[in-house]
Design a protein that fits this description.
11 strands, alpha/beta, four-stranded parallel β-sheet
């Protein structure tokens, strides 16, 4: 198919993970800034740089420190559009919650899912990426990343149940969930991802892969996209050093030890066959291709401009798109 530049959007990770990986990786301590009140003042600047880099859209990300209405105003002021955001759900028992016999507590476990449905619909979106939450203790973060570490078939089936319930909640609100894989979660490897997709009806759950994270686990992402193309509603793409990824898997390296290396790269600077994978999408693909640089290899604004330059070099302007 022929993707155009209008298919592409950006997640603003560049601006909040510059130092992430230099220490423990704990949110709020080494660069993860979305949850800090101080980021409110930076948000309009960041969105302006996304626009000035060349992008016309950005991933939906309402800050926990702002109202939905305030976020909508900031985005409108930036001149950007929003594209599908991201929501995750964990296993209650791994977070110290026993919902046995407590229907109300179990119902409330999905409140965050409902809020993201509300955010999506308010901003005119009807799709969202749905992922498993990082498990406390983080064995796939702190012990070994991208290798299916500590696999447990029964636990994966529990993940299927919870993901399925979350998908039902979203679908009931008119939002289509797309299953998202992520290194560090219980849906990490190709086999785990496919297991969940096979267990839940396509009518309830689309596919929303991160082909960078799949490549990190050693998956042939071109073949994977080709095999699942008709189920993909939207996808994340990222580039990385796949030789480093292979070495890190073999050595059972923790997530943030890998991230501390020059591992994540702007599109076109690494080894992930992004263009070849995207070429396997169906001709009528109408979703979003979300560019992510989990940790930039250069200054954030330069990273965004480099990312857009790769898009502009490889994909044509949409027929109705004005020249930038």
């Amino acid at each position: 198919m022929t993707l155009t530049r209008d298919h592409f959007s950006l997640n603003t990770l560049q601006w909040i993970t510059v130092s992430l990986g230099d220490s423990t990786g704990d949110p709020g301590s080494v660069g993860w800034e979305f949850d800090r009140p101080s980021f409110l003042a930076r948000q309009p600047i960041v969105l302006g740089q996304v626009r000035d880099a060349g992008f016309s859209s950005v991933m939906l990300e309402v800050l926990p420190t702002q109202t939905l209405q305030a976020y909508a105003r900031v985005v409108a002021d930036s001149g950007l559009k929003v594209t599908p955001g991201y929501v995750h759900i964990g296993l209650p028992e791994e977070f110290g919650r026993d919902h046995t016999g407590d229907d109300e507590a179990h119902f409330r476990w999905f409140d965050g899912i409902r809020r993201r449905a509300e955010e999506s619909l308010y901003l005119g979106l009807d799709r969202v990426f749905l992922a498993a939450d990082m498990a406390p203790g983080r064995p796939r973060i702190d012990e070994a990343a991208a290798s299916g570490h500590a696999f447990d078939a029964a636990r994966l089936d529990r993940v299927v149940n919870v993901i399925g319930e979350a998908a039902e909640v979203l679908t009931a609100e008119g939002v289509t969930p797309a299953l998202h894989n992520h290194v560090g979660t219980w849906i990490e490897t190709e086999a785990e991802y496919d297991h969940v997709l096979d267990a839940i009806s396509p009518s309830l759950l689309a596919a929303g892969p991160d082909i960078g994270h799949l490549a990190w686990t050693g998956t042939d992402v071109v073949a994977w996209v080709a095999a699942h193309a008709d189920r993909i509603s939207d996808l994340h793409v990222k580039d990385m050093d796949l030789a480093l990824a292979k070495t890190a898997r073999e050595k059972k390296t923790p997530y943030f030890d890998v991230m501390a290396e020059r591992f994540f790269l702007e599109p076109g600077l690494g080894d992930v066959p992004i263009r070849e994978a995207l070429a396997e999408l169906p001709d009528d693909f109408g979703g979003t291709v979300l560019i992510e640089v989990d940790k930039p290899s250069m200054e954030p604004f330069e990273s965004a401009k480099t990312s857009w330059a790769w898009i502009a070099e490889n994909y044509p302007a949409a027929p109705t798109e004005a020249h930038r």
